[in-house]
Specification:
By secondary structure, this protein is of the alpha/beta class. The protein has helices at residues 2-19, 24-40, 42-61, 67-73, 77-93, 131-143, 157-171, 189-195, 210-218, 242-254, 270-286, 295-301, 330-340, 353-362; strands spanning 101-108, 111-119, 122-127, 147-151, 182-185, 203-207, 232-236, 263-269, 290-293, 306-307, 321-327, 345-349, 367-370, 389-391, 399-401, 407-414, 434-435.
């Protein structure tokens, strides 16, 4: 099996070199072909998903799978046409990520330096449950010129197989799009094999629970981009509009509880707790949410509130459960978030600009929001087209990772025969280091020498 995975990765490496030289028009045409094919094959995809759902529900009944994963697994007609296919076209509509001049400098007369965006190369993505994530990841990689190895969860095996087949067939033979730009891996053992291929895979992105991410980080030399937990907070400040706060808190918790950007903890300023919490607890309970609170919350929320434990503050529920705590002030709220949060997404509800500014600057998270639900922290909603995941890393990319997170850069120097020796010793030339407003342009078509690899 390890030899097969290496062969796939070698094919992906060759494909990445070719795909990175494809024109933006060629890659966009492939994305449009994928969107059309997904819609044309809707019944095949939905039937495969129905079979996955039936199998998953049996596993839930046996206690081997959680309801949160089942929620992420489902694909229906609405999701396929209005979200997945629309998402593919949204990726195609994004600005071209490759070949952008990020910096231009004149080193000396006739000697110019450019920093130009290029694909990362080969990306391995390991994700659980969500078939729509597979399409997002694959199309973002295609748009950004990266080859991709995809390992989905076994619970979505049938759906993922059909989606991968549809996408591969849709792009087969299209100009500039090499065979082998996408590979679907299925066996659990293949994860281990991927992690050993640091010579062929440039980046691993895990999308799953804490256990999965920790395993990957501990077992590979390949750079890893992603997040471990989504322990997100909404803080209701003393200067909050309480009607607004109730809407934001309810949406952040219940709009889609299985999402990593759903709120898991509500923090409430002591000064408005009595006016806010009794009604907020009632609203949450009426919407099927179990409330776990500290002593102050239990006094105000009544017997329906379960006593929170220390573990609750550091728990990602991904379920109809929320922990609630009364805090003394803004600083206490920020201290709590920075201690127990996962640096993912946190929000403040307040009409005080100073408090909002302090929160937005002082909370250490990839996304911070003022008077808005944490559920907005999403690649599509941010206008990125889609996302390969949400990163809490502090290097290269952070937050929802769209196309910009899937490119890196190279330095290009254009000269006229200059040598370093001219710039040292007596009478040496000096560097001008003058910023330029121009962009780097290739001198000829990259397609002239491009080789498109075939199947391995």
């Amino acid at each position: 099996m390890a030899d097969d995975i290496r062969a796939d990765a070698e094919t992906a490496r060759a494909a990445a070199l070719a795909l990175g030289q494809a024109s933006g028009g060629e890659r966009n045409a492939a994305l449009e072909a994928i969107a059309d094919a997904l819609e044309a094959n809707a019944e095949r995809i939905l039937e495969a998903n129905r079979r996955d759902l039936a199998a998953a529900e049996r596993l839930v009944a046996e206690g081997k799978l959680t309801l949160a994963l089942v929620k992420r697994l489902k694909v229906d007609e609405q999701t396929l046409h209005k979200e997945i296919a629309v998402g593919v076209r949204s990726v195609a509509d994004q600005p071209e990520p490759i070949g952008r001049t990020l910096m231009a400098t004149e080193l000396d007369e006739g000697l110019k330096l450019y920093r130009v965006s290029v694909p990362i190369g080969v990306i391995g993505v390991i994700f659980e449950s969500r078939p729509d994530a597979m399409v997002q990841i694959a199309t973002l990689c295609l748009k950004s010129g990266n080859a991709v190895l995809l390992k989905g969860g076994s619970e979505a095996l049938r759906t993922n197989r059909v989606l991968a087949e549809v996408m591969r067939k849709a792009t087969r033979g299209l100009p500039g799009i090499p065979e082998g730009w996408m590979h679907l891996l299925e066996a659990r053992e293949e994860v281990r094999a991927i992690l050993d291929l640091h010579d062929l895979i440039d980046l691993v992105i895990p999308r799953g629970g804490n256990e999965l991410v920790q395993y990957i980080v501990a077992n590979t030399k390949i750079p890893v981009m992603g997040h471990v937990d989504g322990i997100c907070h909404v803080y209701v400040d003393s200067a909050a509009d309480l009607k607004k706060a109730k809407r934001v808190c309810l949406d952040a918790k219940t709009q889609y509880t299985a999402a990593c950007n759903a709120a898991e903890t509500l923090l409430v300023h002591r000064e408005i707790a009595e006016a806010f919490l009794p009604d907020m607890v009632r609203i949450l309970r009426e919407n099927g949410v179990e409330v776990r609170g500290d002593e102050a919350t239990r006094k105000l929320g009544g017997e329906a509130v379960i006593a929170a434990t220390e573990a609750d503050w550091a728990t990602e529920y991904l379920d109809q459960i929320v922990s609630v705590k009364v805090v003394n002030d803004l600083e206490s709220a920020m201290d709590h978030i920075n201690r127990y949060g996962s640096h993912h997404t946190d929000a403040i509800v307040t009409e005080d600009p100073s408090a909002a500014s302090g929160f937005l600057q002082g909370v250490d998270a990839a996304s911070v929001l003022h008077n808005a639900s944490t559920r907005f922290a999403d690649g599509f909603r941010y206008g990125l087209g889609a996302e390969v995941g949400i990163s809490t890393n502090r290097l290269h990319s952070r937050g929802p990772v769209g196309l910009e997170g899937l490119v890196i850069y190279k330095y290009i120097v254009e000269g006229e025969g200059q040598t370093v020796g001219e710039y040292s010793g007596e009478g040496a030339r000096t560097f001008t280091h003058r910023p330029l407003s121009e962009t780097w342009q290739p001198k000829g078509p990259v397609t002239s020498n491009r080789k498109t690899p075939g199947p391995a």
